[in-house]
Design goal:
alpha+beta, four-stranded antiparallel beta sheet, three-stranded antiparallel beta sheet, globular
Length: 128
């Protein structure tokens, strides 16, 4: 669907956000080092996990005519030193919601994460 209306795309983003809030836990995003799997259907190598950030519930802060903004995540401690190359968002049921490529889909101030350091996401805006 390359030519959908802004209203339809915002509805899809809202549905994505509702999917993220489903389940008994909070949605999370895990940053990984190494090669990103070919699709979200392929299991991530948990040995490459660097840090797990948790979203509040509900995760949506604001829905406007041009974007949906998520609340900031918590601040979490890096459990393994490495260079973050990709991230995977999981909903509250632990189901994969999306994969993000660092530098293309999401930006970090520093991709080299030090063991014991901290990381948080202050702003995520999905735009149709």
């Amino acid at each position: 669907m390359s030519k959908t209306s802004v209203k339809a795309r915002l509805a899809m983003i809202q549905a994505f956000a509702n999917f993220m809030d489903s389940g008994g836990q909070s949605a999370t995003v895990i940053f990984y080092e190494g090669v990103q799997p070919a699709s979200p259907a392929v299991a991530a190598d948990l040995g490459n996990a660097l840090v797990t950030l948790t979203f509040p519930e509900p995760c949506i802060k604001e829905t406007t005519a041009t974007y949906v903004e998520f609340h900031p995540t918590d601040t979490a401690t890096v459990i393994k030193a490495g260079t973050a190359t990709w991230a995977r968002i999981y909903n509250g049921a632990g189901e994969v919601a999306a994969d993000l490529t660092i530098g293309t889909d999401i930006s970090l101030a520093n991709t080299n994460l030090a063991l014991g350091g901290t990381l948080s996401i202050t702003s995520i805006k999905l735009r149709p």
